[in-house]
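Blinded run. Sample ID left blank on purpose so nobody reads anything into the name before looking at the predicted structure. Input follows.
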Amino acid sequence: MKTKLILVALTSILTTAIQASDSPPVGSAAPDFSLQDANGKRHSLSDYKGKYVVLEWFNPECPFVKKHYGSANMQKLQQNFTSKGVTWLTIDSAAPGKEGNLTPEQANKTAAKWNVHSTALLLDPEGKAGRAYGAKNTPHMFVINPEGKVIYEGAIDNKPTPYPEDIPQATNYVKVALDESMAGKPVSTPSSRPYGCSIKYE
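Blinded prediction complete.
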């Protein structure tokens, strides 16, 4: 089973979506977007100006995503920071008919089943937000500060495996970036190479 997961992991990393452009540089203005959540409510990044925002690219079929949700690592991180006023937007940019794409009904069922604690699960079937951010993998993470600038971009942590047992030894880059910035310190690791399954764009 572990060998199979390794093969899936390597295939996913090697097939990183080439349709995505480069991510906005750290320190630059985060591109605005407007997407509907699973309940039809529209969310724009500009709605959350003045707040910290986390963007998390999501695919419930991806073993790397399952690693963090199956262990409740992602939910704990979401809950920890949304309780501190951080807006957490989970985004699904998979195209219709491709792996990871969710209908609104499926998105609501997944969010409930996995006990997701993000602010909203946003649907991006045309891939507009994903391409604007150069999102390549699931999970691909971004942290945006209250001034609307990207202060972190890349992987969720420094253990690029699909194995939950690696989480306790990992450095969680998103947590570190938020903790440091919210304490008025510079972000020590502002970018890293994202890992995970390729986003299946149109």
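Unblinding after everyone has recorded impressions. The two ends are 31 Å apart (CA to CA).
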